[in-house]
Design a protein that fits this description.
Order of helices and strands: EEHEEEHEHE
Strand content: 35-45%
Enzyme class: transferase
Catalytic activity: S-ubiquitinyl-[E2 ubiquitin-conjugating enzyme]-L-cysteine + [acceptor protein]-L-lysine = [E2 ubiquitin-conjugating enzyme]-L-cysteine + N(6)-ubiquitinyl-[acceptor protein]-L-lysine
Structural class: mainly beta
Helix content: 10-25%
GO molecular function, one term: zinc ion binding
Distance between the termini: 26 Å
Protein name: E3 ubiquitin-protein ligase
Pfam families: Sina_TRAF
Number of helices: 3
Largest sheet: 4 strands, mixed
Length: about 110
């Protein structure tokens, strides 16, 4: 897997945009076996994006064109930056692996143990 961040100035929005996407080094069929989550968090704020990775053969530009990526502007980046640095947490899971659920998604009576 590889992840890529691109910056682009969008004259229609008159602001700099940031894009992040995860690509699988393999075919689209292989990529369909995974899911990834990108998450920004700081100062009691959280922004996340979850999707199927793109094949390396599809390219980052295609994902951005299709809006199939995490996209945010400079103002949002500043909300999550710490000392001028912006960190993105990346989680990649194989779909055939059991998925852990967030506590807020659990129904009464559901328990998960490590």
């Amino acid at each position: 897997m590889c992840s890529e961040k691109q910056e682009k100035y969008d004259p229609a929005q008159s602001t700099q945009m940031f894009y992040a996407v995860v690509q699988l080094i393999g075919s689209k069929k292989e990529a369909d076996n995974f899911v990834y989550r990108l998450e920004l968090s700081a100062n009691r704020r959280r922004m996340s994006w979850e999707a199927t990775p793109r094949s390396i053969h599809e390219g980052v530009a295609f994902a951005i064109q299709q809006s199939d990526c995490l996209a945010f502007d400079t103002s949002a980046a500043q909300l999550f930056a710490e000392n001028g640095n912006l960190g993105i947490n990346v989680t990649i899971s194989r779909l055939d692996a059991p998925q852990r659920r967030h506590a807020a998604e659990m129904e009464a009576g559901d328990l998960e143990y490590d």
